[in-house]
Design brief:
There is one protein chain. With 154 residues, the chain is α+β, with helices and mostly antiparallel strands. It has a single domain, classed as Sandwich (Jelly Rolls), CATH 2.60.120.10. It has 4 helices and 8 strands, in the order ααββββββββαα. Strands 1-8-3-6 form a 4-stranded antiparallel β-sheet. Strands 2-7-4-5 form a 4-stranded antiparallel β-sheet. Helix 3 crosses helix 4. The chain is globular. The relative contact order is 0.22. The N terminus is likely disordered. This is Cyclic nucleotide-binding domain-containing protein. It holds the Pfam family cNMP_binding. It comes from Streptomyces hebeiensis.
Length: 154
């Protein structure tokens, strides 16, 4: 089932796969300014935002971290947990109070290995999100650092 990356997990996974994943969800909250993870750290969990906002950022030598994308309701926070070496490629910070569902990456990877159809659905969902994030990062970095920006008219 293909859905746009911004559609969220509810549209990306079948009802049964969504139910199975949500069985392992743990409700968490973060205060504004909380760092969820740092670039290079161990990616051992991921979140789906219920309320609030989270900025994804990237270290830039000699400059403040560059915000790559701002995430909100029903969006996936973290994809590095799915791919070896399971290390964060970006950082993340709550820009407002956040409520989210948290998932243990080891448990979900095990579910993916045990059920190839479930694994394919999760991989497609996370892959769609990853492709969207890479496009966003490219555009944002060009806007910040290229002489003429990304060239986007938007």
């Amino acid at each position: 089932m293909n859905a746009p990356a911004t559609a969220g997990m509810l549209q990306a996974l079948t009802t049964e796969h969504r139910r199975r994943l949500m069985h392992f969800a743990r409700e968490v909250s973060f205060r504004q300014g909380t760092r969820l993870f740092e670039e290079g750290g161990r990616a051992d969990r991921f979140w789906i935002i219920r309320t609030g906002g989270i900025d994804l950022d990237m270290r830039v030598p000699g400059r403040p971290a560059a915000v790559i994308e701002s995430l909100g309701h029903n969006e996936l926070v973290g994809w590095s947990w799915l791919f070896v070496p399971h290390a964060w490629h970006l950082g993340a910070e709550a820009t407002s109070p956040v409520r989210a569902y948290e998932f243990d990456a080891t448990v979900v990877r095990s579910m993916c290995r045990d059920d190839p159809e479930f694994g394919a659905s999760v991989a497609q969902w996370v892959g769609d999100v990853l492709a969207h994030r890479l496009r966003s990062a490219r555009t944002r970095l060009l806007d910040l650092y290229a002489p003429y920006g990304s060239g986007s008219l938007l």
